# Entry
Amino acid sequence: MRIYLLKTPEFSEEQFQNVYNFLKTFKGPLKFSKINLDFDKEKFPFLFYPYINTDYKSDGKKGNFKQEIGTILRWKEIFSLSTYYRDTVKINKNDFVIVLTDRRNELNWFSKFDEKRNIFVHTSDWDAFTNANPKYPIAYQIVENVMQFLMKLESQSPYNPYIHFQPTGCMNDFCQNKQEVILKLQNANICETCIAKIRHENIDDKIVQQVFKIFDGVRNELVYKNRTIEQNADIKLAITVTKKNEIFIGNLEIRLTPLRKTLYLFFLENKLINNHGILFNDLGDFKIELMNIYRKLAVEGEMDILKTRINALVNPVEDRFSQEKSRINSIISDTLGKNIAKDYILSGGRNEPSKINISNDLIKFQQ
# Structure
């Protein structure tokens, strides 16, 4: 399956090349091609300044002219570019044509696909959401739309169970508030509901694997960029625990195994009522509390297995607690950077109380 990348005149050739170079490093069934196409002013006057009106019917409200970006483009104007290329070159109907444009569109969407495998991606203004190179979120939007088409997500209705109007960190978050886009970019995830839809549509596993590799590549770059810029800053990020017991520090999800998440959630809850922390030798007094949290998170349904793991965790003879604590702290440091992470890790030595040092007003459990 080939994906042809086109650009409108104002999108820089350098950035166009950057997007293409990034995507082609991920091998798989999705093959990317960069197409340099000069659009004729007479055929496509809306691409050039000053703006000349066309007969295309608008999908939404028309924006005002701005010299630096031109008049906001209608969706049908943008899709006419990919249709022109598709018809001129006679490409395979199963291939995708992507138009990359700095010009804003009439509904101010990040991207959109139509029923003929044509897609556009808005390429400007990414500096409002991340300090990373725009090629990474642009690349994410490209493969996101390919996947959404293959999943047959034609409807953006609130009644479509695969379009998340409340952000979850999934590829299919709608992001009506555009600031929410950073959550799915940095989460690099597709939720279980949408994975089930992918399987239902029999999408090639190799395509899904390639898409996840691209998502992870984007996530790594965004996290790295944010970390290196903020490393020496006095930054205090909020810890949010969602209804699904996902843990976010700022916009970054802290991905932990059920047992490690149980331990971290326990110390978060304890922090709200006890600023002094808990000694390891006293942890056995809280087996019931730990068990109640673990039961909500663990995949296994057998109580004996869960009890065995909690007993091992609080056993003074075993070293399980220090191992899990060390791994939790390593994951948080890798995600946030060491300077920022110091307030979010489980602090304290072997004979010292373990605790999380962030202030209580930055800890939020969603109801």
